[in-house]
Design goal:
The chain has 432 residues and is an alpha+beta fold. β6 and β7 form a beta hairpin. It has 12 helices and 19 strands. It starts with a helix and ends in a 7-residue tail after the last helix. Strands 2-16-4-12-13 form a 5-stranded antiparallel beta sheet, with no helix packed on it. 37% of the residues lie in helices and 23% in strands. 23% of the residues are buried.
């Protein structure tokens, strides 16, 4: 039982600490999962039996290859979806003043309706609650040594923090110790020690912003009813509020609105991030959708950035895994197949395989009346890159050094679970 608990702890720590955060494109429909399953069955049925290089560098390489492919797939998906008629078809939103507010289009890619724009005026940003303690000189702590504690009430929960004050301990070391204690608790507060000429102070700030109408504070600090010695809160002054939480206040087409956060969505179409408040006399900023040609050019540039990131990450393993060159050659063959079509759009590839986009030539090549025709080659190229990313995700072991032991009997292949299990098995072989 203890072993099982320890194993779960190790695995959960791996998942939460080292794996990338999941996004909206990491969720799948049943039909998509069924397609992945069928691909794995076909792969297992046709692949020969082999012995792989199970060294630590090979394991790291396989994991990175799978994650790089996933990131490239998600980049393509974010630019219009995974269906061929939607590739690179994502609308792009604009803000006339990005310093005040940035915007991202999150509406339906396949919608033919133009999202209506609006005017935005930012009166006030949402703020967090900040408690700033007393500034204490960096001398010995001026309260008796012992075991102290205090309570923090936040999100309708109460947390008790216990700590020792040792003989000769300084104010700065005590503040730093409590700051680490609070940050490691992960209760929704960020703690830091502010150092100035007159000393240092412990500061606590909420990760969340905004406040409900029936509340005044997001958190409180007290040692009135704590289980250990009291007096540390009064000494440190961490119950003193230096900034009250408040909501963002803004106007949409002259209509007043509020938000708990500076990041919110509007009509399931726009994702807005407020960056700074405006002066009273400032003009409203405009939020809307860019023209189709501008959106297409922006999508192609974002695809190029994602593609180059994939090539760069893959190239970094050339000295570790010789078969990496096979993957880079496959990517070069895909780009060469549509070299002429891409060149007509102002897109080329350098000697290392990185995609170069001439934005002026790209914009002039995409005509409003024939956009789909102009980028048909680009879409086909993107679709092939997407297929390659999917293949790598399903079987990253294809590019790891291995020795073939036996081929399947032609015409009598049977599906086996071991090919793709080689990848997942690497995560657990060190536990036994």
């Amino acid at each position: 039982m203890a072993y099982s608990y320890a194993l779960n702890s190790v695995y959960n720590n791996y998942l939460t600490t080292y794996t990338p955060k999941s996004g909206r494109y990491d969720s799948h429909k049943k039909s998509e999962l069924r397609g992945v399953y069928n691909s794995i069955v076909k792969l297992n049925k046709e692949s020969p039996l082999s012995i792989i290089d199970s060294s630590v560098p090979s394991q790291s390489y396989a994991v990175n290859m799978k994650e790089n492919a996933r990131e490239l797939r998600n980049t393509i998906a974010s630019l219009g979806g995974l269906e061929e008629d939607g590739l690179l078809n994502k609308k792009t939103a604009y803000s006339s003043s990005p310093s005040v507010a940035t915007v991202k289009y999150i509406g339906d890619v396949y919608s033919d309706e133009d999202a209506s724009g609006f005017e935005l005026t930012v009166e006030k940003l949402a703020s967090s609650q900040i408690n700033t303690g007393h500034f204490l000189e960096n001398g010995p702590v001026d309260i008796n040594p012992g075991t102290y504690s205090f309570d923090i009430n936040i999100n309708n929960m109460s947390y008790e923090f216990q700590f020792n004050i040792n003989e000769g301990e300084t104010n700065l070391s005590l503040q730093q110790k409590l700051s680490r204690l609070i940050n490691n608790s992960n209760i929704g507060l960020v703690s830091s020690v502010k150092e100035e000429a007159n000393g240092s102070a412990l500061e606590l700030e909420t990760k969340l912003t905004g406040i409900e109408d029936d509340k005044q504070y997001l958190f409180t600090v007290s040692d009135d009813n704590t289980s250990k010695l009291s007096g540390a809160v009064d000494y440190l002054g961490i119950d003193k509020i230096s900034q009250l939480p408040d909501n963002a206040k803004f106007y949409l087409n002259d209509e007043p609105h509020e938000s708990y956060s500076n990041h919110f969505t509007i009509a399931k179409t726009y994702e807005i991030t407020l960056n700074e408040a405006q002066e009273i006399d400032d003009e409203p900023i405009s939020i809307g959708i860019k023209a189709d040609t501008e959106s297409m050019a922006e999508n192609i540039q974002q695809f190029a950035d994602g593609y180059n990131s994939f090539i760069n990450n893959t190239s970094s393993f050339l000295s570790i895994q010789p078969k990496t060159s096979h993957l880079l050659n496959e990517m070069n063959r895909i780009s060469n197949a549509y070299g002429t079509d891409l060149k007509n759009l102002g897109i080329s590839f350098d000697e290392s395989g990185y995609m170069q986009v001439n934005r002026e030539a790209l914009s002039s090549s995409i005509d409003t009346d024939s956009t789909l025709e102009a980028i048909s080659g680009m879409r086909k190229f993107t679709n092939l890159v997407l297929n390659k990313a999917n293949q790598i995700s399903i079987n990253p072991m294809n590019y790891v050094d291995k020795t073939i032991v036996a081929y399947k009997n032609p015409g009598k292949e049977l599906p086996t679970p071991y090919i793709t299990s080689q990848y997942s098995g690497m995560m657990f072989n060190g536990y036994c």
